[in-house]
Backbone:
Protein backbone atom coordinates (compact mmCIF):
# COMPACT_ATOMS: atom_id res chain seq x y z
CA UNK A 1 0.00 0.00 0.00
CA UNK A 2 2.83 2.38 0.84
CA UNK A 3 4.32 1.88 -2.61
CA UNK A 4 0.92 2.49 -4.20
CA UNK A 5 0.58 5.74 -2.21
CA UNK A 6 4.01 6.90 -3.34
CA UNK A 7 3.27 6.14 -6.99
CA UNK A 8 -0.11 7.88 -6.91
CA UNK A 9 1.32 10.99 -5.22
CA UNK A 10 4.28 11.13 -7.58
CA UNK A 11 2.02 10.90 -10.62
CA UNK A 12 -0.48 13.45 -9.28
CA UNK A 13 -3.36 10.98 -9.12
CA UNK A 14 -4.57 12.41 -5.80
CA UNK A 15 -8.24 11.60 -6.36
CA UNK A 16 -7.32 7.94 -6.84
CA UNK A 17 -5.25 8.20 -3.65
CA UNK A 18 -8.27 9.58 -1.75
CA UNK A 19 -10.37 6.70 -3.06
CA UNK A 20 -7.67 4.25 -1.93
CA UNK A 21 -7.70 5.78 1.56
CA UNK A 22 -11.49 5.47 1.60
CA UNK A 23 -11.32 1.83 0.59
CA UNK A 24 -8.81 1.21 3.40
CA UNK A 25 -11.09 3.15 5.83
CA UNK A 26 -8.33 5.70 6.41
CA UNK A 27 -11.01 8.39 6.34
CA UNK A 28 -9.02 11.08 8.13
CA UNK A 29 -6.28 11.00 5.50
CA UNK A 30 -8.82 10.88 2.65
CA UNK A 31 -10.72 13.91 3.98
CA UNK A 32 -7.50 15.83 4.64
CA UNK A 33 -6.43 15.19 1.04
CA UNK A 34 -9.79 16.39 -0.33
CA UNK A 35 -9.53 19.48 1.87
CA UNK A 36 -6.05 20.34 0.64
CA UNK A 37 -7.18 19.93 -2.96
CA UNK A 38 -9.68 22.76 -2.33
CA UNK A 39 -7.89 25.17 -0.02
CA UNK A 40 -4.20 24.51 -0.78
CA UNK A 41 -3.78 22.92 -4.24
CA UNK A 42 -0.40 24.67 -4.70
CA UNK A 43 1.20 22.78 -1.81
CA UNK A 44 1.49 19.52 -3.75
CA UNK A 45 4.85 18.77 -5.37
CA UNK A 46 3.07 17.37 -8.41
CA UNK A 47 -0.04 19.21 -9.67
CA UNK A 48 -3.23 17.13 -9.25
CA UNK A 49 -4.01 15.04 -12.32
CA UNK A 50 -7.73 15.75 -11.80
CA UNK A 51 -9.82 17.56 -9.21
CA UNK A 52 -13.18 15.78 -9.33
CA UNK A 53 -14.40 12.65 -7.58
CA UNK A 54 -17.60 11.04 -8.87
CA UNK A 55 -18.09 14.19 -10.97
CA UNK A 56 -18.04 16.28 -7.77
CA UNK A 57 -15.50 19.03 -7.31
CA UNK A 58 -14.60 21.60 -4.69
CA UNK A 59 -16.35 21.30 -1.33
CA UNK A 60 -19.02 19.03 -2.82
CA UNK A 61 -16.66 16.04 -2.84
CA UNK A 62 -15.96 16.43 0.88
CA UNK A 63 -19.63 17.11 1.65
CA UNK A 64 -20.69 13.94 -0.16
CA UNK A 65 -17.98 11.99 1.69
CA UNK A 66 -19.17 13.29 5.08
CA UNK A 67 -22.83 12.67 4.30
CA UNK A 68 -22.30 8.94 3.95
CA UNK A 69 -19.50 8.43 6.49
CA UNK A 70 -20.32 5.89 9.20
CA UNK A 71 -21.81 7.43 12.35
CA UNK A 72 -18.91 6.18 14.48
CA UNK A 73 -16.75 8.85 12.81
CA UNK A 74 -18.71 11.84 14.16
CA UNK A 75 -15.50 13.53 15.32
CA UNK A 76 -14.24 13.55 11.72
CA UNK A 77 -17.58 14.95 10.53
CA UNK A 78 -17.38 17.92 12.89
CA UNK A 79 -13.63 18.39 12.33
CA UNK A 80 -13.95 18.68 8.55
CA UNK A 81 -17.21 20.62 8.68
CA UNK A 82 -15.20 23.51 10.12
CA UNK A 83 -13.40 24.43 6.90
CA UNK A 84 -16.54 23.70 4.85
CA UNK A 85 -18.42 26.21 7.04
CA UNK A 86 -15.93 28.84 5.95
CA UNK A 87 -15.94 28.06 2.22
CA UNK A 88 -19.50 26.76 1.72
CA UNK A 89 -21.87 27.49 4.67
CA UNK A 90 -24.92 26.05 2.92
CA UNK A 91 -23.01 22.87 2.13
CA UNK A 92 -22.16 22.46 5.81
CA UNK A 93 -25.80 23.15 6.66
CA UNK A 94 -26.75 20.30 4.31
CA UNK A 95 -24.53 17.95 6.32
CA UNK A 96 -26.13 18.95 9.63
CA UNK A 97 -29.71 18.65 8.37
CA UNK A 98 -29.25 15.46 6.34
CA UNK A 99 -27.40 13.37 8.93
CA UNK A 100 -30.05 12.15 11.32
CA UNK A 101 -27.56 10.43 13.62
CA UNK A 102 -25.92 13.67 14.77
CA UNK A 103 -26.87 15.20 18.11
CA UNK A 104 -28.90 18.37 17.63
CA UNK A 105 -27.46 19.76 20.85
CA UNK A 106 -23.94 19.12 19.59
CA UNK A 107 -24.70 20.75 16.24
CA UNK A 108 -26.12 23.88 17.90
CA UNK A 109 -23.11 24.17 20.18
CA UNK A 110 -20.80 23.61 17.21
CA UNK A 111 -22.51 26.37 15.22
CA UNK A 112 -22.30 28.61 18.26
CA UNK A 113 -18.52 28.10 18.48
CA UNK A 114 -17.54 27.78 14.81
CA UNK A 115 -20.40 29.23 12.80
CA UNK A 116 -22.31 32.49 12.62
CA UNK A 117 -25.51 33.80 14.13
CA UNK A 118 -27.13 33.36 10.71
CA UNK A 119 -26.27 29.65 10.72
CA UNK A 120 -27.65 29.21 14.25
CA UNK A 121 -30.87 30.99 13.28
CA UNK A 122 -31.19 28.91 10.12
CA UNK A 123 -30.70 25.65 12.02
CA UNK A 124 -33.21 26.61 14.73
CA UNK A 125 -35.73 27.50 12.01
CA UNK A 126 -35.12 24.06 10.50
CA UNK A 127 -35.73 22.33 13.85
CA UNK A 128 -38.91 24.34 14.47
CA UNK A 129 -40.23 23.51 10.99
CA UNK A 130 -39.37 19.84 11.56
CA UNK A 131 -41.31 19.80 14.82
CA UNK A 132 -44.30 21.66 13.38
CA UNK A 133 -44.49 19.22 10.47
CA UNK A 134 -45.01 16.41 12.98
CA UNK A 135 -41.81 14.57 12.07
CA UNK A 136 -39.91 12.83 14.84
CA UNK A 137 -37.00 14.92 16.08
CA UNK A 138 -33.75 13.18 15.28
CA UNK A 139 -30.42 13.36 17.00
CA UNK A 140 -31.89 14.53 20.32
CA UNK A 141 -30.10 11.75 22.17
CA UNK A 142 -26.86 11.68 20.24
CA UNK A 143 -23.55 10.80 21.81
CA UNK A 144 -22.59 14.38 22.55
CA UNK A 145 -22.83 13.90 26.28
CA UNK A 146 -20.00 16.12 27.53
CA UNK A 147 -20.94 18.85 29.98
CA UNK A 148 -19.52 21.58 27.76
CA UNK A 149 -21.57 20.26 24.84
CA UNK A 150 -24.76 20.46 26.89
CA UNK A 151 -24.03 23.92 28.30
CA UNK A 152 -26.33 25.72 25.90
CA UNK A 153 -29.29 23.71 27.13
CA UNK A 154 -28.31 23.23 30.75
CA UNK A 155 -27.69 19.51 30.21
CA UNK A 156 -31.36 18.82 29.40
CA UNK A 157 -32.68 16.89 26.41
CA UNK A 158 -33.33 18.99 23.32
CA UNK A 159 -36.97 17.87 23.24
CA UNK A 160 -37.53 19.83 26.45
CA UNK A 161 -35.97 23.02 25.09
CA UNK A 162 -38.18 25.86 23.86
CA UNK A 163 -36.65 26.40 20.43
CA UNK A 164 -38.69 29.57 19.87
CA UNK A 165 -37.08 31.11 22.96
CA UNK A 166 -33.59 30.36 21.64
CA UNK A 167 -34.51 31.76 18.24
CA UNK A 168 -35.98 34.95 19.72
CA UNK A 169 -32.82 35.52 21.77
CA UNK A 170 -30.59 35.08 18.72
CA UNK A 171 -32.76 37.46 16.68
CA UNK A 172 -32.55 40.03 19.45
CA UNK A 173 -28.78 39.57 19.52
CA UNK A 174 -28.48 40.14 15.80
CA UNK A 175 -30.86 43.10 15.65
CA UNK A 176 -29.23 44.71 18.67
CA UNK A 177 -25.74 44.03 17.31
CA UNK A 178 -24.51 43.40 20.85
CA UNK A 179 -22.22 40.48 20.01
CA UNK A 180 -24.08 37.80 21.95
CA UNK A 181 -24.67 39.55 25.25
CA UNK A 182 -28.34 38.70 25.28
CA UNK A 183 -27.84 34.99 24.70
CA UNK A 184 -25.12 34.84 27.34
CA UNK A 185 -27.26 36.41 30.05
CA UNK A 186 -30.40 34.49 29.07
CA UNK A 187 -28.85 31.05 29.05
CA UNK A 188 -26.89 31.60 32.23
CA UNK A 189 -23.56 31.14 30.46
CA UNK A 190 -20.90 33.80 30.17
CA UNK A 191 -18.91 32.00 27.49
CA UNK A 192 -19.27 31.19 23.83
CA UNK A 193 -20.90 34.32 22.43
CA UNK A 194 -21.79 34.10 18.76
CA UNK A 195 -20.36 36.37 16.17
CA UNK A 196 -22.74 38.42 14.14
CA UNK A 197 -24.32 41.82 14.04
CA UNK A 198 -27.45 43.60 13.05
CA UNK A 199 -25.77 44.51 9.80
CA UNK A 200 -26.19 42.85 6.46
CA UNK A 201 -28.58 43.60 3.66
CA UNK A 202 -31.76 45.60 4.36
CA UNK A 203 -33.76 42.65 3.02
CA UNK A 204 -32.21 40.28 5.56
CA UNK A 205 -32.70 42.79 8.37
CA UNK A 206 -36.34 43.15 7.37
CA UNK A 207 -36.80 39.37 7.43
CA UNK A 208 -35.25 39.19 10.89
CA UNK A 209 -37.58 41.93 12.16
CA UNK A 210 -40.59 40.16 10.67
CA UNK A 211 -39.63 36.78 12.17
CA UNK A 212 -39.07 38.28 15.62
CA UNK A 213 -42.44 40.02 15.44
CA UNK A 214 -44.09 36.71 14.48
CA UNK A 215 -42.53 35.08 17.54
CA UNK A 216 -43.66 37.92 19.79
CA UNK A 217 -47.20 37.51 18.45
CA UNK A 218 -47.22 33.74 19.02
CA UNK A 219 -48.02 31.75 22.15
CA UNK A 220 -44.88 29.62 21.77
CA UNK A 221 -42.55 31.99 23.66
CA UNK A 222 -42.00 31.35 27.35
CA UNK A 223 -39.37 34.04 27.97
CA UNK A 224 -40.38 36.71 30.47
CA UNK A 225 -41.69 39.73 28.50
CA UNK A 226 -40.21 42.02 31.17
CA UNK A 227 -36.76 40.52 30.56
CA UNK A 228 -37.07 40.91 26.79
CA UNK A 229 -38.16 44.51 27.26
CA UNK A 230 -35.05 45.20 29.33
CA UNK A 231 -32.83 43.98 26.45
CA UNK A 232 -34.16 46.43 23.87
CA UNK A 233 -32.11 49.59 23.27
CA UNK A 234 -33.87 52.90 23.81
CA UNK A 235 -35.31 54.44 20.67
CA UNK A 236 -34.78 51.28 18.59
CA UNK A 237 -36.88 48.23 17.67
CA UNK A 238 -40.04 50.25 18.32
CA UNK A 239 -42.50 47.74 16.85
CA UNK A 240 -40.89 44.90 18.80
CA UNK A 241 -41.12 46.96 22.00
CA UNK A 242 -44.80 47.65 21.27
CA UNK A 243 -45.46 43.93 20.75
CA UNK A 244 -43.83 43.08 24.09
CA UNK A 245 -45.91 45.77 25.83
CA UNK A 246 -48.92 44.23 24.12
CA UNK A 247 -48.05 40.83 25.63
CA UNK A 248 -47.94 42.56 29.02
CA UNK A 249 -51.36 44.11 28.43
CA UNK A 250 -49.94 47.65 28.44
CA UNK A 251 -51.88 48.75 25.38
CA UNK A 252 -51.76 52.47 26.11
CA UNK A 253 -47.95 52.47 26.36
CA UNK A 254 -47.69 50.40 23.18
CA UNK A 255 -50.05 52.74 21.35
CA UNK A 256 -48.14 55.81 22.54
CA UNK A 257 -44.90 54.33 21.16
CA UNK A 258 -46.46 53.61 17.78
CA UNK A 259 -47.98 57.08 17.63
CA UNK A 260 -44.65 58.76 18.39
CA UNK A 261 -42.31 56.73 16.18
CA UNK A 262 -44.34 54.99 13.48
CA UNK A 263 -46.66 56.01 10.63
CA UNK A 264 -50.32 56.59 11.67
CA UNK A 265 -51.33 53.39 9.90
CA UNK A 266 -49.46 51.32 12.53
CA UNK A 267 -51.54 52.79 15.38
CA UNK A 268 -54.79 52.29 13.48
CA UNK A 269 -53.79 48.70 12.73
CA UNK A 270 -53.07 48.15 16.43
CA UNK A 271 -56.51 49.57 17.32
CA UNK A 272 -58.16 47.24 14.83
CA UNK A 273 -56.40 44.18 16.28
CA UNK A 274 -56.97 45.14 19.93
CA UNK A 275 -60.60 46.17 19.96
CA UNK A 276 -60.99 45.05 23.57
CA UNK A 277 -58.50 47.77 24.53
CA UNK A 278 -60.05 50.42 22.32
CA UNK A 279 -60.98 52.51 25.37
CA UNK A 280 -57.28 52.84 26.24
CA UNK A 281 -56.35 53.77 22.68
CA UNK A 282 -59.18 55.96 21.42
CA UNK A 283 -57.81 59.23 22.80
CA UNK A 284 -54.41 58.49 21.21
CA UNK A 285 -55.93 58.53 17.75
CA UNK A 286 -58.34 61.35 18.48
CA UNK A 287 -56.10 64.14 17.23
CA UNK A 288 -54.96 62.31 14.10
CA UNK A 289 -56.15 63.61 10.75
CA UNK A 290 -58.68 61.26 9.26
CA UNK A 291 -57.05 61.58 5.85
CA UNK A 292 -53.78 60.17 7.24
CA UNK A 293 -55.55 57.00 8.31
CA UNK A 294 -58.16 56.74 5.56
CA UNK A 295 -56.90 53.35 4.40
CA UNK A 296 -57.07 51.95 7.92
CA UNK A 297 -60.58 53.37 8.45
CA UNK A 298 -61.71 51.69 5.23
CA UNK A 299 -60.20 48.38 6.41
CA UNK A 300 -61.93 48.71 9.79
CA UNK A 301 -65.28 49.38 8.10
CA UNK A 302 -64.73 46.38 5.84
CA UNK A 303 -63.99 44.21 8.89
CA UNK A 304 -67.13 45.43 10.67
CA UNK A 305 -69.25 44.82 7.57
CA UNK A 306 -67.75 41.36 7.14
CA UNK A 307 -68.41 40.46 10.78
CA UNK A 308 -72.01 41.71 10.60
CA UNK A 309 -72.58 39.69 7.45
CA UNK A 310 -71.13 36.56 9.06
CA UNK A 311 -73.28 37.11 12.16
CA UNK A 312 -76.38 37.54 10.00
CA UNK A 313 -75.63 34.32 8.10
CA UNK A 314 -75.01 32.44 11.35
CA UNK A 315 -78.26 33.76 12.80
CA UNK A 316 -80.21 32.66 9.70
CA UNK A 317 -78.62 29.19 9.80
CA UNK A 318 -79.41 28.83 13.51
CA UNK A 319 -83.02 29.84 12.90
CA UNK A 320 -83.30 27.36 10.02
CA UNK A 321 -81.84 24.60 12.17
CA UNK A 322 -84.29 25.38 14.98
CA UNK A 323 -87.22 25.21 12.55
CA UNK A 324 -85.96 21.88 11.22
CA UNK A 325 -85.64 20.41 14.71
CA UNK A 326 -89.11 21.66 15.63
CA UNK A 327 -90.54 20.09 12.46
CA UNK A 328 -88.90 16.75 13.30
CA UNK A 329 -90.24 16.95 16.87
CA UNK A 330 -93.79 17.56 15.64
CA UNK A 331 -93.41 14.68 13.18
CA UNK A 332 -92.34 12.32 15.96
CA UNK A 333 -95.10 13.56 18.27
CA UNK A 334 -97.71 12.72 15.61
CA UNK A 335 -96.65 9.09 15.55
CA UNK A 336 -99.07 6.65 17.19
CA UNK A 337 -99.21 2.91 17.78
CA UNK A 338 -102.08 0.58 18.57
CA UNK A 339 -101.49 -1.82 21.48
CA UNK A 340 -104.00 -4.64 21.60
CA UNK A 341 -104.27 -7.51 24.08
CA UNK A 342 -102.52 -9.70 21.48
CA UNK A 343 -99.50 -7.36 21.03
CA UNK A 344 -96.25 -9.10 22.04
CA UNK A 345 -92.60 -8.06 22.48
CA UNK A 346 -90.49 -9.07 19.49
CA UNK A 347 -87.61 -10.06 21.81
CA UNK A 348 -89.22 -12.14 24.56
CA UNK A 349 -92.57 -12.74 22.81
CA UNK A 350 -94.49 -11.92 25.96
CA UNK A 351 -97.52 -9.69 25.88
CA UNK A 352 -96.97 -5.96 26.18
CA UNK A 353 -100.09 -5.24 28.25
CA UNK A 354 -99.35 -2.29 30.57
CA UNK A 355 -95.53 -2.57 30.46
CA UNK A 356 -93.24 0.25 29.32
CA UNK A 357 -92.35 -0.31 25.67
CA UNK A 358 -90.59 1.29 22.71
CA UNK A 359 -90.80 0.99 18.95
CA UNK A 360 -87.76 -0.47 17.23
CA UNK A 361 -86.49 0.69 13.84
CA UNK A 362 -88.91 -1.64 12.08
CA UNK A 363 -91.88 -0.21 13.98
CA UNK A 364 -92.30 -3.32 16.15
CA UNK A 365 -93.04 -3.28 19.88
CA UNK A 366 -90.26 -4.12 22.36
CA UNK A 367 -90.33 -4.10 26.15
CA UNK A 368 -88.08 -1.30 27.42
CA UNK A 369 -86.33 -3.77 29.75
CA UNK A 370 -85.68 -6.15 26.84
CA UNK A 371 -84.33 -3.27 24.76
CA UNK A 372 -81.86 -2.27 27.51
CA UNK A 373 -80.79 -5.89 27.95
CA UNK A 374 -80.06 -6.15 24.22
CA UNK A 375 -77.99 -2.96 24.28
CA UNK A 376 -75.93 -4.24 27.22
CA UNK A 377 -75.20 -7.55 25.46
CA UNK A 378 -74.17 -5.75 22.27
CA UNK A 379 -71.78 -3.48 24.19
CA UNK A 380 -70.12 -6.45 25.95
CA UNK A 381 -69.71 -8.31 22.66
CA UNK A 382 -68.08 -5.26 21.08
CA UNK A 383 -65.65 -4.88 23.99
CA UNK A 384 -64.72 -8.58 23.82
CA UNK A 385 -64.07 -8.36 20.09
CA UNK A 386 -61.88 -5.27 20.56
CA UNK A 387 -59.85 -7.02 23.27
CA UNK A 388 -59.35 -10.07 21.07
CA UNK A 389 -58.23 -7.89 18.18
CA UNK A 390 -55.74 -6.10 20.44
CA UNK A 391 -54.22 -9.40 21.60
CA UNK A 392 -53.92 -10.60 18.02
Residues:
Amino acid sequence: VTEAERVLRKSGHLIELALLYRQLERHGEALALLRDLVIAPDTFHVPPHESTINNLKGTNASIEYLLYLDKKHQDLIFEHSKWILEFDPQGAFRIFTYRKDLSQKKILNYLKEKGTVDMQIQYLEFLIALRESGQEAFGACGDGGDDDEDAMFGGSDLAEVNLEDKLAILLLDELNGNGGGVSASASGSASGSASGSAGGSPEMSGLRHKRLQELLNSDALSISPEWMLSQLPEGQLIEERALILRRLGKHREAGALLKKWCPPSKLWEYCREERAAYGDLVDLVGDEKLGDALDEVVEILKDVTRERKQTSILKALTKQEALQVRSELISHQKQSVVVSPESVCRVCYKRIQNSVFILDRDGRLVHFVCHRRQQSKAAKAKATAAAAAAKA
User: Anything to note?
Assistant: Confidence is low (pLDDT under 50) at residues 138-157, 178-199. The longest strand covers residues 357-359. The chain has 18 helices and four strands.
